[in-house]
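Troubleshooting: if your tokenizer reports a length mismatch, compare your output against this known-good record of 156 residues.
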Amino acid sequence: MDLNKKEVLENVNRIVSLLLIESSVESYGILHQMKFIEFRGQYGDIQIFIDSDLELYPDINIEDLTVEQKDLLILNQVNLKQVQKVECFSSSDIVFTFIDNTVLKISGNPQDETIAEPWQLTNKKGVDQMDYISIVGLTGDGFAVWGSLDNLKRGS
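Known-good structure output:
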């Protein structure tokens, strides 16, 4: 099926909204030198692995920290908060709005220019399982999607 970029973006937004709205941040950190957030909601645990810049609104203004230290403080600001809205943009940015109006933006451009995928969202299932789904932001311009909403199970 050949979809134009607008249709792909609409489908990606439908999927991330279904998976993440009303889910809560359950954990966050750095795993294998990559930032991650784990959400828990009606479709089980959903993880996003991040190799791009983070922005938080309202911003935390702490000087003399490394990028890694600031990123962990940013992630701490959304810990245990419920997602109210999530939206992807044609730039491959993904933006989360939490129930207290905190906004977390994950850039669609990776920190490491050799990496083509600034973020990857997955439901922690194996690719051989029917309810596997993965959405990948592609550097500054688009998405790749594996899996299907048809096979997702609530609470899995």
